[in-house]
């Protein structure tokens, strides 16, 4: 995935970061992340976004090498989040005569992040506006709330390149060899997932363009089979499942709720289920659990009662589901309690607040430990989930 060749006139100048442990201080990134920035060499030399402050030195070196003595005329700011815009002031200081291109909301945010006087040096663009660089022409499309209000994407008309901001991004440094969908799914659903309607609006705009390459702000440059990536985004942003399958997410204190979850997984697989994923909400990565919940058609939540409510990691999981607009799924409930099981009632009430959720009627209650009658009930639930 380290292929960063775009064209003779459009140069990748971004940088990998393998030293960051948590993206946005919450998402584990075992293979790091890339901060993508691009340079267009033309009559008007243009930088497409900057990078995180953690990568400033490498980015400046890449920029100087690609410029080979030229000066920068324009900086296009697609997104003001600090992992992309931390070096706006750095570039302006390096090239005092450059002009900054953004929309009205962009410049409001620049003033919040930096103490800069951009009088006479700002170019405000609106939906569909174009700017000629010489042989290249940039066309701008607003993408509000994908996933900040100032976001815009840029289409370069001559080489048919979409600079897609955070759209089509993924976790993982560019030298990481891994399946694109796995980490792109986790990236999209956790970061952009709340804003499916806005992503759908952007995809509609993109469908009218002849796109031959997608250059995102994170992850690899997409050059082939673009329909695959666009279809993934269409599925994710419309909240449809990607494939038939079951995620069993459990919150277990002493292991008894875990045992019920494991038995259900075994039952499902013995009855022919092909995709059954088990996740321990106390220990496994929450962002992966959320991504799998959206990936599959069915979700089983198994939770111990704790202080008359839900075990905290289950509460956290449910909070993440609601925040990202979880919907259009079938949900089954398993609860455990030694004297007053309350988890199923509270989880059911939660899922009833979400859109288009079908809740299985056969709720399973474990009283402390799994008994023979519990095993019978789990087998019956497996049948219901596979019906």
Question: How are the SSEs placed, and which strands pair?
Answer:
Blueprint: E1 10-12, E2 15-17, E3 22-23, E4 27-28, E5 33-35, E6 38-40, E7 46-48, H1 56-67, E8 74-76, H2 82-85, H3 88-94, E9 99-102, H4 104-113, E10 122-124, E11 130-132, E12 137-142, E13 152-156, E14 161-163, H5 180-192, H6 196-206, E15 213-215, H7 226-237, E16 243-251, H8 256-270, E17 276-280, H9 286-295, E18 296-306, E19 309-310, H10 312-323, E20 329-336, H11 343-351, E21 357-359, E22 364-366, H12 372-386
Parallel strand pairs: 7-8, 8-9, 9-10, 14-15, 16-17, 16-18, 18-20, 20-21, 20-22
Antiparallel strand pairs: 1-6, 2-5, 3-4, 6-7, 11-12, 12-13, 13-14, 18-19
Largest sheet: 7 strands, mixed
* Overall body shape: elongated
Helix content: 25-40%
* Beta-strand residue percentage: 15-25%
In angstroms, what separates the terminal alpha carbons? 41 Å
Mean pLDDT, as a whole number?
97
Radius of gyration: 24 Å
Question: Helical stretch count?
Answer: 12
Uncertain runs = none
Q: What's the count of strands?
A: 22
Structural class based on helices, strands and sheet pairing: alpha/beta
């Amino acid at each position: 995935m380290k292929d960063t060749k775009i064209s003779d006139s459009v140069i990748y100048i971004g940088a990998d970061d393998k030293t960051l442990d948590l993206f946005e201080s919450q998402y584990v990134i075992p293979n790091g992340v890339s901060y993508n920035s691009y340079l267009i060499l033309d009559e008007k030399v243009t930088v497409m976004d900057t990078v995180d402050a953690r990568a400033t030195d490498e980015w400046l070196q890449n920029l100087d090498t690609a410029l080979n003595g030229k000066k920068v005329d324009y900086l296009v700011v697609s997104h003001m989040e600090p992992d992309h815009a931390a070096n706006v002031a750095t570039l302006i200081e390096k090239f005092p005569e450059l002009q900054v291109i953004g929309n009205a909301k962009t410049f409001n945010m620049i003033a919040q992040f930096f103490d800069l006087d951009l009088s006479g040096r700002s170019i405000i663009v609106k939906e569909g506006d174009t700017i000629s660089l010489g042989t290249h022409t940039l066309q701008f499309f607003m993408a509000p709330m994908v996933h900040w209000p100032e976001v815009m994407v840029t289409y370069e008309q001559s080489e048919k390149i979409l600079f897609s901001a955070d759209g089509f991004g993924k976790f993982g440094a560019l030298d990481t060899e891994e399946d694109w969908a796995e980490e792109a799914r986790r990236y999209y659903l956790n970061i952009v997932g709340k804003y499916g309607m806005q992503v759908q609006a952007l995809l509609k705009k993109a469908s009218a363009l002849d796109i031959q390459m997608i250059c995102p702000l994170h992850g690899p440059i997409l050059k082939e089979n673009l329909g695959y990536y666009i279809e993934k985004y269409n599925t994710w942003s419309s909240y449809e499942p990607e494939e038939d399958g079951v995620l069993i997410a459990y919150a277990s204190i002493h292991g008894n709720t875990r045992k019920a979850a494991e038995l259900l997984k075994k039952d499902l697989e013995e009855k022919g289920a092909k995709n059954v994923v088990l996740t321990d909400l106390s220990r496994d990565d929450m962002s992966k659990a959320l991504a799998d919940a959206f990936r599959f058609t069915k979700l089983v939540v198994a939770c111990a009662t704790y202080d008359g409510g839900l075990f905290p990691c289950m509460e956290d999981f449910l909070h993440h589901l609601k925040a990202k607009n979880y919907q259009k799924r079938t949900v089954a409930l398993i609860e455990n309690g030694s004297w007053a099981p309350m988890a199923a009632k509270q989880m059911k009430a939660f899922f009833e607040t979400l859109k288009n959720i079908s809740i299985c009627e056969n709720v399973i209650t474990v009283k402390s430990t799994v008994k023979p009658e519990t095993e019978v009930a789990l087998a019956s639930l497996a049948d219901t989930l596979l019906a």
